[in-house]
Amino acid sequence: MLRIRRFIFILYIAFKYRLDELVLSSIQHPWTHRLLRWVRLGRQPKLSRGVRLRLALEALGPVFVKFGQVLSTRRDLIPADIAQELARLQDRVPPFSSELAAKTVEKALGASPHVIFKHFEVDPVASASIAQVHFAILPDGREAAVKVLRPGMREVIDKDLALMRTFANIVQRLLVDARRLRPREVVAEFEKYLHDELDLIREASNCSQLRRNFGPETGRADLLIVPEVYWDYCATNVFTMQRMKGIPVSQVDRLLEAGVDLKDLARKGVEIFFSQVFSDGFFHADMHPGNIYVSDDPATLGRYIALDFGIVGSLSEFDKNYLAQNFLAFFQRDYRRVAQLHIESGWVPPDTREEELEGAVRAVCEPYFDRPLSQISLGQVLLRLFQTSRRFNVEIQPQLVLLQKTLLNVEGMGRDLDPELDLWDTAKPYLENWMRQRIGAQGLKERLTKEAGQWSQLLPQIPRLVYENLSRPDALPALHDELRLLRQSQQQNNRLLAALCAVLGVAVVVALWALVR
Question: Which Pfam families does the record match to this protein (predicted)?
C-alpha cells in the first residue's frame, strides 16, 4: 500500500511539473505526437525542461535529489542543459531530532554520546540527505566531528530504488534512444553509489587512505589537509573524524581577507587533482565547493581541506597510462596517436578505421586550440571526446566518467579563484614529468624494487625446479603407446558401429518386404 501511495505521489509530481511533456517529446512515434498535443492542451510549459526536472526531483525528496546529482555527472548521456540544471541540486534537508541522533550513536557505539564524549553538541552543524554532523570533544580533549546516518534511510532508499528500476524499464522500452541512454545501467550505478554512502566505515576508510596519500612522507603534505579518522568511535552508521576549521573555497572575499594567494591556491588545486589521479590512482570524486575548505590557520594558511569522502574514484595502471598519453597527445595535437590509443585500449571495435576516428577527434579538439589557453576547458574536451566516442560504440568506463566530472569541478573551482588559470599549462609539465618517471630509468628502478620481494622468493627455487624438470623420465614413449591403444579402440568401435548399422538396415528392408507382400 505504501509503495502504491508513493507511486501515485510521484505521478502527481510528474504531472505538476509537466514531466509527461518532457517524456513524450523524447519518444519518436506518430501516436505520441498526437498524445503530446492533447497533454499540452494548447499550452507550452513556462519553465525550461531542466528547471522543471530539477524542481520535481527536489519535491520528491532526498533519494531523488541524490539521483539528480549523480545523473548530472553523466554528461555523456544526458543533454547539456539538463545536466547543467541538475548540477544545481542541493541537499536542503531539515535535520532529524537530536534525541534520535543520540540514540543512533548509543546503539552503534554502546553508550550514550554524552558518556562516550567529553562534550557532544546536541544541535547539528550540518544536515544532508544521507547524514548530519555534530561537533564533539573526545575524552583526551581533541575536537571531533561526528557524522550520524539518518535512521531508516536504507529502507527508504530501497523502496525508492525499486520504483526507479520500474521507471527505468518503462523508459528502456518506450524511448528510441534508450539503448544509448542506458537507464537501467544508470539506476544500477546510482544504487551502487548510494549504498556505498550508507556505509560510513567505507567512507572512513576512504578518508584514511587519502590522508595517507598526502602524509608527511609523500612530500605533498603542504597541498592538502585530510582529517584523521578516530576509529574507536566509528561504526557503519557513525563516522567520527578530526574537526576541520577553515573557509569554504567559494567564499573568495573571506579568503582574500585572510591573506590567501588565490592564484597559488588555484594552481595547487590542479596539482592536487593530477597527483591523486596519476601518482595514487585514487581520487576524491566529489570535489565541489561545499566539500572543499581552505585553512586560515597561520601555521597552515592556504592549504586545502578535504571533506566528505563518500564518493571516490580508482584508476588502474592501464587507466593512468591511457589518460596520461591521451592528455600529452592533446597538448601536441597528435590526433593520430589519440585514435591509436582508443583502438589499443580495446574500447573501440577492432575493425574501426583509424583515420576515421582521427578525423572525429580532430573535429573535437582543433576548435579549442584557436582560443587563448586560459579559455580552454580540459574537462569539456574530455566530455566531447566521450560524446564522439559514442559514434564508434565505445563503452565509457565508470571510473573515467567520475574523473571527467571531478575535472570539471576542479576547473570551475580554479577559474573562480583565478579567471586566468591556464589548466593546460599547469598540467602539462606534471604529466611530462610523470611520463619520464614512468618510462625512464627511475620508473624502471621503482618497478624492479617493487617486484624484488617476489623475486627474492622465486629465484632460489629456480635451480631446483630446473633440475626436477630435467630429471623426470621421458614420458613421450608412454604417451605414444596410450595414443596408439586409443586409436585401435576407436577403430574397433567404428567397425562394430558399422556392423550394427548394416544389420539394422537389413532388418528394415526385410520388414518392408513383408509388409508389401
Answer: ABC1 (PF03109)
Backbone angles phi, psi at 176, to 5 degrees: -65, -35
Residue 262, C-alpha cell as written in the block:
588565490
User: CA-CA distance, 137 to 338, in Å (whole number)?
Assistant: 53
**Helical H runs in 41-97?**
49-60, 62-72, 80-86
282-284 and 238-242 strand pairing: unpaired
3-state secondary structure of 127: strand
Task: Report CA dihedral (220, 224, 225, 229) to the nearest 10 degrees.
Answer: -80
For residue 144, count CB atoms less than 10 angstroms from its CB and return exposed for 0-12, middle for 13-18, buried for 19 or more: buried
pLDDT, one tens digit per residue, over 59-75 is 887 777 877 776 776 66
Q: Are strands 143-149 and 131-137 parallel, antiparallel or unpaired?
A: antiparallel
pTM of the model: 0.72
CA distances from 326 to 330, 357, 391 (A): 6, 14, 19
What is the 8-class DSSP label of residue 29?
A: -
Determine phi and psi for 127, rounding to 5 degrees.
-140, 130
**Following DSSP, what letter does each residue of 282-345 receive, concatenated?**
EEES---GGGEEE--SGGGTT-EEE---S-EEE--HHHHHHHHHHHHHHHTT-HHHHHHHHHHH
Q: Could you tell me if 463 and 471 are in contact, meaning their C-beta atoms sit under 8 angstroms apart?
A: no
Q: Which residues are catalytic?
A: 286
